[in-house]
Amino acid sequence: MNSKTLTCIVVLVFLALPLQGWGASYAAGAYGGFAPSLGGDLHTAQHYSEFQSHNGIDGMNRSMEGYDTGRIDRILGVTCGMLFKTIFYDYYQVRIAMNYTWGYFGGTGKTVFDDGGTTRLLDCEYSFWEADIPVTFGISIPFWKDIRIAFSCGLAYAYADYSYRFESSTGQQWKGSFAGWGLPLVIILEGEYFVTENVAASTSLVYYKGSTKVLKDGSDAGGTDFARIDFSGYRYSLGVTYYFGSI
Amino acid sequence: MMVSLCLPLTLRANDVLGLGVHLGAHHNVGYVNEQDTSVLTDPQNSMLLGLALKVNAAFFFIRTGFDTTFPLNQGEVLENSGQVEKYKLNYVAVPFFLGLRFPVKDRGEFYMGGGMAYFLGSGKVTLTSGATEDISAVNYGYGFITGVQFIVLPDVRFYMEWEYFDARSEAVLKTQTANAWDNFYIDYTGHRIILGVMYYLL
């Protein structure tokens, strides 16, 4: 992490600190949900040069008569996290969270590829996890004492680890491993239903847009590869938020 | 007698079970330009016609139903390194969402949910050779729904929804000349906008 990024994060965290003079109230919560198509298409340079795929996992999703192939689904991620937010002047909020998201379903299957003029079966396995700290600023509108609807946007410090392992029917293996960080744009739509004066059931829809810079393969099998880890995509979550004081 | 007459009204006030009919739209059906990034497409747009069933329990809701599509135009590949010239994809989607609802007194409600859908897809792909291939696939995908309902009459709501699904099939057709395998899949991924009317039975 360079100093510019660190400064950016420190400033954003500072914005989320208690704002005593502004009649601020505070809340903390936890949530869990899912993230379809985690990591995007997971494309790397070798997907094209070795396996004839222009678009990562989608291009690897092939079938051929006479070969026992199996669909390779995009990765469905499971996500969980904690949040802290400050609401000031009744309608404005600063929200900071910590999320961990990992591939739960998909990302495995059998395909075929052209191995120097011979079509061969290829076992594919993708794995992906990500940790991120989104900091967003926005509006939070209360409806009577029952509901809050919030919309906010900002940036996240996101770190991800993506790896793949392919093995052909001849036993030859290719591995790729990439780890890096980025600062994706984050947009959050949240709803909170107050079950008691201080406790709310919450739901959120979050969109990330951004990626790392191009990363070099950290593994030592199957040649050097390059990839850009994509943080873009939607996440849906359900959770509970506790308000330290009535809204 | 008085109690039995009052009971339906009481249940109606709870907005427990709604049945809706809606129209919608889905832009860029099939995401063909994402399957082969070297092509430029005039994407297919489809109209959706469907039924919605919504069950409310306190601040939770379940939303299911089905949607069927009617292509407004067939997709066309304008500049092509592959073999696809035109395509027309149809599907029936059976979604299931679970989420939270936020009733706004006397006005309606806002709701957000996540879930999955089953897709029964089919279509025709016209290749550059002039041949037309029929394709079909059954798959599931994951997504979310965000909607608002406005009270029009005591039991009738006007609703607008934004749905997003991420789903695709296995490869079902060969649309390239370089290799021998099937590479073309039905991609149901995308956003849908829905407008409809819901009648609350209970």
In a few lines, what is going on in this structure?
The complex is a heterodimer of chains A (247) and B (202). Chain A has 247 residues and is mainly beta.
Could you walk me through the main structural features you see in this protein, from its secondary elements to its overall organization?
The complex is a heterodimer of chains A (247) and B (202). Chain A is mainly beta. Chain A has one domain: Porin (Beta Barrel). In chain A, 9% of the residues lie in helices and 57% in strands. Chain A has an eight-stranded antiparallel beta barrel. In chain A, strands 10-11 form a two-stranded antiparallel sheet. In chain A, strand 6 and strand 7 (173-182) form a beta hairpin. The longest helix of chain A is centred in the first third of the chain and has 13 residues, at 3-15. The radius of gyration of chain A is 22 Å and the shape is elongated. Chain A starts with a helix and ends with a strand. With 202 residues, chain B is mainly beta. Chain B has one domain (2-200): Porin, CATH 2.40.160.20. Chain B is built from two helices and twelve strands. Chain B has helices at 2-13, 32-35; strands at residues 17-29, 40-42, 44-57, 60-73, 75-79, 84-104, 108-127, 132-153, 156-166, 168-173, 184-187, 190-200. An eight-stranded antiparallel β-barrel of chain B has the order 1-3-4-6-7-8-9-12. In chain B, strands 10-11 form a two-stranded antiparallel ribbon. The longest helix of chain B has 12 residues, at 2-13. Chain B is elongated and about 60 Å long. The two termini of chain B are 19 Å apart. The A-B interface holds A 33-34, 36-37, 52, 54-55, 58-59, 61-64, 67, 69, 71, 73-74, 76, 112, 114, 119, 143-144, 146-147, 149, 189, 191, 193, 195, 201-205, 234, 236-238 and B 34-38, 59, 99-105, 110, 112-114, 141-144, 146, 164-166, 168-172, 178-183, 185, 189.
